[in-house]
Amino acid sequence: MTTLPNRIARKIKMLAAPRIPLGAYRRLVPRNPVGFFYHAVSDDPPPHIRHLYPIKSAAEFEADLLWLKQHYTVIGYPELAAHAHGERALPEKAAYLSFDDGFAECYSVVRPLLLKHGLPGIFFLATDWIDNTAMYYKSKVSLIMEHGNWRLEIDRDDKNLQSPISNLDLLSLQQSDEPLIDAACAEAGIDIAAYLQKRQPFLTGAQIREMRAEGFIFGGHTRRHHKLSFLRPAEQADEIVASCRIVAEITGDQRVPFAFPFSGDGVDRGMLATLRDQHPFIGPIFDTQKLRREPGIFHRIWADKPVEGVVARNNLAYWLKQAYVNEVNR
Q1: 22: in domain
Q2: Suppose 283 and one of 8, 39, 108, 255 were both cysteines; which one would form an S-S bond, judging by CB atoms 3.0 to 4.6 Å apart?
Q3: b/e map of 192-211 (b: 16 or more CB within 10 Å)?
Q4: 113 pLDDT band (50/70/90 cuts)?
Q5: Structural domain that includes position 146
Q6: Are 125 and 102 in contact (CB under 8 A)?
Q7: What's the pTM value of the predicted model, to 2 decimals?
Q8: Are 146 and 291 found together in one domain?
């Protein structure tokens, strides 16, 4: 049982944590490297992303790159992999950039800016979406929300979705609800196959190979962005192994990294170690728990969102400080 003095101390810590300057956190709670991850960058967020989360404009993303170059040594995957294998020490104040899901903006917007600033990046791919052969279930939800003028009634055992379904109902749907989502698309007159062909929302194999030739690194991110904690261990293993194998085949790399979709919560770390022993093409593992320290896992900070009242040049500093606050209050 938590004692009263412990509860008081925790409350004081929670109140004090946001007041500590970022510079003090970097000295008192050292973390090296620090990782940041994005999904897409666009001056005009596309309909298949627009209703899921805010993303930065090209100028806002470039402000992040300038801030990183000023305050950190930006490193790439080779340095991270060598460090993970005990072969190389990291430079002081090391940071890295990664990008999840494989949206087309990684080629059209992110790539030119990274090349402009001479910065490396790691791109994690949900491999079923490569070449636009399938659509992310949440992107389907975003398209439904973009459509706006539709009605649908669906009943199921644990959810009664009345007509019209609210945005909150839609955003709560999971991958297991994809038949419901597809029914909603049909009801709204949204042709997913035509959208994939015309809009090309995801990277193609040709773009991936071009970026790899330019020095960018690609890794697995499951096949269809499954929340792995919802799957049985054998299914988890299959998603990890299959996506890394496909990426290795496309890029020609002997070993590729893997990043959990959503998070790695609920995935047994012993199983991960066994998979990597059995399949040498699976490289270092990346997760999303900000500044958490965990053997064999690189954790990253979500950096997509602009913040109202925080100027672009300070946005990354804002998210880094929030990560420190989260870490000391954990």
Answers
A1: no
A2: 255
A3: beebbeeeebbbeeebbeeb
A4: very high
A5: 137-199
A6: yes
A7: 0.92
A8: no
